[in-house]
Amino acid sequence: xxKNALRDSNSVSFRMSESDQSRGVPMPPIQKPAPKGKIPxxxxxxxxxxxxxxxxxxxxxxxxxRSFTENPISLEELSLLLWATQxxxxxTNPNRIYRNVPSAGNRHATETYLAVFLVEGLAKGLxxxxxxxxxxxxxxxxxxxxxKVSEACxxxxxxxxxxxxxxxxxxxxRTEWRYPGASIKILALDxxxxxxxxxxACEAIGCxxxxxxxxxxxxxxxxxxxxxxxxxxxxxxxxxxAED
Length: 244
Ligand SMILES: Cc1cc2nc3c(=O)[nH]c(=O)nc-3n(C[C@H](O)[C@H](O)[C@H](O)COP(=O)(O)O)c2cc1C
Prior knowledge:
By secondary structure, this protein is of the alpha+beta class. It has a single domain, classed as 3-Layer(aba) Sandwich (NADH Oxidase). The protein contains 7 helices and 9 strands; from the N terminus they run H-E-H-H-E-E-E-E-E-H-E-H-H-E-H-E. The strands form 2 sheets. The chain has a 7-stranded antiparallel β-sheet with strand order 1-6-5-4-7-9-8. Strands 2-3 form a two-stranded antiparallel ribbon. Helix 2 packs across helix 6, helix 3 runs antiparallel to helix 6 and helix 4 runs antiparallel to helix 7 (about 215-225). The radius of gyration is 18 Å and the shape is globular. Bound molecules: flavin mononucleotide (FMN). The site of flavin mononucleotide (FMN) has 9 residues, from loops. Flavin mononucleotide binds near residues 66, 156, 210 and 213.
């Protein structure tokens, strides 16, 4: 039998007395800063009245959707989806901002990248979300982006034929600073909450999504320019206008 790494990580994870935090190492930044020379694109505030479904209907209608209409999504809709998945709920204390999703110890190791194909007002390309600023920072504009995203998802073509594909990475030290050795469990649990909010927010605004864990780690990390160790892709979710 292989070693039960998930179960064994628990006692290690929560031995906080052995953490960098308990040794007085300063807390890592709550989000990756915008790279020098890249000007963030401010997103509109998520409109209050965008959702058309009550929560019970959104939960009942939720399903994994793998084909979409060719209609673009608006910047307001994208803003709502980013707000639902990583938006800030409470910034009273700038060192401890709370978001619309839970995270063990409020560490929020997740970073959100977007492969934008069909979003009104945004050029095709890769972007990263800055939750504390509710802004997007351009990352790169690779040629053949549709193909590259599909290839990174092991040939799952719908990943490259969506309006926008969410690609979540984790900066694992943000969690390990408090919970050393925790990554195997906490990082995966955290991003599950993020993706579920994406499913429900999509459902509420006539969009659809499908979680993707079957991706090629090397290709996905390379697409975003990640080192694959300190930061690596953990989950992917294409989004488009729902067909029904
Ligand atoms: C962790 C996780 C990984 C998944 N990975 C994929 C995937 O790589 N490709 C895919 O088409 N669906 C994927 N799915 C979607 C599941 O196939 C789907 O949730 C399941 O068939 C149940 O359907 P439903 O979401 O419509 O209820 C994934 C779902 C989860 C929760």
